[in-house]
Amino acid sequence: MKKLGLTGVLALGAAASIALAGCQSGATGGDSGTGGSGDTITLGYIPSWTDGLSTAYLLENQLTQLGYNVEMEELTEAGVLYAGLSQGDIDIYPSAWPEVTHAEYMEQFGDDLEDLGAYYDNAKLTIAVPSYTDIDSIDQLAANADKFGGEIVGIEPGAGLTGVTENEMMPAYGLTDKYSLLTSSTATMLTELGNAIDKKEDIVVTLWRPFWAYDAYDVKDLKDPLGAMGDAEGLHFLGKKGLSEQYPDIAELIAGIKLDDAAYGSLESMVTGDEYDGDPAGAVSAWIKEHPEAFPTLIAS
Q1: What are the helix (H) ranges across the chain?
Q2: Number of neighbours of residue 249 by Cβ within 10 angstroms
Q3: Mean pLDDT over residues 197-218, rounded?
Q4: For residue 214, which phi and psi values (nearest 5 degrees)?
Q5: What is the DSSP string of 165-182?
Q6: From CA 291, how far away is CA 280, in angstroms rounded?
Q7: In the chain, is it the N or the C terminus that has fewer CB atoms within a 10 Å radius of its CB?
C-alpha cells in the first residue's frame, strides 16, 4: 500500500490530536478584507481523510500565490471542524461532504457557514470487502455474520460515514443485533484491512469514494439495493460566514476549482504516493506544474 496509509497517516493522525480550544483565534483572517495583504487564512482539515489533505495543500499553494499567509489546522473530528468554522476560528474547510455525509452537521451549523462551491460531484459512501470474499451485496451480511466475526470495521466515531453506517445502513438491513461497528480512526481501519488481506481473511469495512485505498487494496464495494448509504454527493469548500464578502478574490479562486475523476485521482495519488511521502506541499506544487489546465484560475507556483 502507499506509505501514507500506514506511516504518513499514522504520523499525521498523531499530530492532529488537538481540541477546538487549540485553534488560535488570532490566526484567522483579519478584518481589513484587503485580500493578499498578508492576512492569515486558517484551513481546517482532517489529515487521515486524504481528499481534505489534498485539497487543503492545493488551496494553501494557491492562497500563498495570492499573497496570503496560510495556517494549516489539523483536526481529528468533523464535528469539531464544523464548530470551529461556525465560530470563525477556522476560515475554510477545503473538502466537506455537506449534502449527505455531513448533513447532520450542516443542520446544526449551516446557518453560520458559507458554501463556497463544490469541486467534485461524485463522492460516495461505501461498505467494502476484499475482492476474494464470496458476498456481493450488503443484504448478504446478515446471514454471514459469523464470517466477519460480527464486526464492521469503521473509522472515527464522529465521522459522517460512521453515523450513516450505524443509524441508516445497519437498521435498514437488520444488522444492528448481528454486528458491532468498531470505531477508532481511518488509519486503524486501513491497518486492519491490510492485515486481513495479507492473511486472506474476510473483513467488512466502511469506505468512501474517491479514496486512494481503492488503488492500494484489492477490495470491492458491496451493492446497496436499499440505498441506505445515500446517494452520490459533491465535495465542497465551506467558509466561515461572510468569507466571500471579506475576501472576494479567495471566493473567486475557489469557485474555479472543478476536478474530474482523472484530475482528482492524479492529485490524490501524488499527495499520498511514495515520491513525495511526508511532503504534501511538494506533491501539490509538482501536480500543478504537470496539470496547468486543472482549473481556470490556477496560479502556477
Answers
A1: 3, 9-15, 50-65, 78-86, 103-109, 160-164, 170-172, 186-198, 213-216, 243-246, 248-255, 261-272, 280-290
A2: 16
A3: 93
A4: -70, -25
A5: IIIIIHHHTT-TTT-EEE
A6: 16
A7: C
**The C-alpha cell of 37 is what?**
495583504
The CATH label, of 3.40.640.10, 1.10.10.10, 3.40.1010.10, 3.40.190.10, for the domain at 3-122+232-290 is 3.40.190.10
Within 10 A of 262 (CB to CB), how many other CB atoms are there?
10
- SS3 (DSSP) at 122: strand
Residue 59 phi/psi, 5° resolution? -70, -35
| Cell triple for 236 | 465542497
pLDDT bucket at 19, cuts 50 / 70 / 90: very low
Residue 51 contacts residue 271 (beta carbons within 8 Å): no
* CATH assignment, 124-221: 3.40.190.100
Output the nine-digit C-alpha cell for 288: 500543478
Residues of the chain with CATH 3.40.190.100: 124-221
DSSP 3-state of 119: strand
Cell numbers found for residue 9: 497517516
Does the model's pTM come out above 0.85? no
pLDDT tens-place string over residues 288-299: 988 877 766 656
Q: Please calculate the CA angle 119-121-126 and round it to the nearest 5 degrees.
A: 120
For residue 152, list its beta bridge partners.
181
